[in-house]
Amino acid sequence: MATTSLLLNLTPKAYNFRHPRPKRTNPILARTSSSPSSSTFSSGAVTVKEKSSFPGKPEADVVVIGSGIAGLCCGGLLARYEEDVIVLESHDLPGGAAHSFDIKGFKFDSGPSLFSGFQSRGPQANPLAQVLDALDERIPCVSYDSWMVYVPEGEFLSRIGPTEFFKDLEKHASPNAVREWQILLSYLLLCYCSHMEDETLQQDAVLPLSAAAMALPPLSIRGDFGVLSTAAARYTPSLLKSFIEMGPKGALGATKLLRPFSEIVDSLGLKDPFIRNWIDLLAFLLAGVKSNGILSAEMIYMFAEWYKPGCCLEYPLHGSAAIVEALVRGLQKFGGRLSLGSHVGQIVVENGRATGVNNASMWDTVKLLPSDVIPKSYADRVNTTPQCESFMHLHLGFDAEGIREDLGIHHIVVNDWDRGVDADQNVVLISIPSVLSPDLAPPGKHVLHAYLPGTEPYDLWKGLDRRSTEYKNLKSQRSEVMWKAVERAVGSGFSREKCEVKLVGSPLTHERFLRRNRGTYGPAIEAGKGSFPGHSSPIPQLYCCGDSTFPGIGVPAVAASGAIVANSLVSVSQHSQLLDAIGI
């Protein structure tokens, strides 16, 4: 059978945003398959900064740009489908925003650290867990069930599960807050709360929306009409069962799954300030927007994982690097390849087509494409899409001597509810993973990552020289809120002066190392006002995954996006065989 070729022109290696003149080029041919059982790819190209050698043969059918969670999930599944795939990563470490790094024996997470659902299996499993299952990979985890919360009302150890949070509400909020939380859990999770006194409320409120939200396994979704076979027809019985269990009122409520979660909150008459603030905080931690901007389905999925009986949180032994390593193992196990230090400078489009999957943000994707091939409507949409702000990071390595032994892994500090959880300098998240995985720090030490979660204004930093005194002073000023939060969380035994590693990251750091436009957290697309783009692009055979595509921001969401693209590039038969193989 005839094949066409995709030429990848290798130009000089660089770790900044400037594109120096080519010193030499080495061709990599990406063959396209014309097999009826797989997608047919036409010629196209990307330019890659100089790479001394690539793993395996210098050719591939599918090129994935970026080794973030989405890119690795996509590449790994394509390899599992027996596609010839290579993942190109600009950094010298894989993982994108989830990569880890080592300084003086302290192993730091650079991004997400609050996880759940790794051990889940079956149709309702976490999307990342389903991908790992498909790749026959497991991640050893430590289970726990709480995090420390510091809010204006006080500080408390918040436990997940259907009943424990009521105790916190009784102490730090009000009886009305307890009642409203009962109403919400009952509506979402079919949780009968033993001390609900209003029988009518029990009967009317109990609607198992979580069953509807989780009826379709994430791995069954694809981006073409084949979804009618792999998802709709395959899981019709479970969907019908969910709707029958919900009854007419529940079925009507299911129509809200693609609406803002705040509409559900409003419809239930939830007005207690603490409950509204807490819901906003959970939504913001999950997707970078408050409850009026997040899809109800996404929030309900989170509630099902965090507030059902027997639930737990999970931290991977050896840190978030263990997730990335498992995905890389899965990719390579099935013949896929990963090339580090391979920065893609441009996606070359020939004859109107390109071949590849792009894990970059929508704004960075536009930069990679020749301007003359980008439709104006697409460019306008990208340029007018609102962005979440960027991050401040504080990475510390310090001695555990004098630190209390009951120090927990996670701490959340909210300084002022009235300013909103999305206000700058207001919410600080702290992770001390060496509490659960001591190997992340030298013996007798702790490793800590504090950050402002997508709330740091990029414009404060725009144009600053990272070597200037002005930049250093601004880092000192804007990191102070994190230092104070750490001192509050770790306690009196902590001393800034005794930290053996002190690293402050700014939006410019985020932009530089992750190559993300303005160091952004991702698109600030509010449910009900807009929707995350699908996975195709205006360039034929160029697909996109990651947090600029459906279903959005967050580890489960980006894992799902990578899976959707991989599924879309193979036949319905191959997709169905994979679902059969992993028992969903």
UniProtKB/TrEMBL annotation:
Protein name, UniProt field: Prolycopene isomerase, chloroplastic
Biased composition (Low complexity): 32-43
Gene3D superfamilies membership: FAD/NAD(P)-binding domain
Disordered: region residues: 21-43
InterPro entries membership: CrtISO-like (IPR045892), FAD/NAD-bd_sf (IPR036188)
Protein species of origin: Cannabis sativa
Any single Pfam family the record assigns to this protein: NAD_binding_8
GO biological process: carotenoid metabolic process
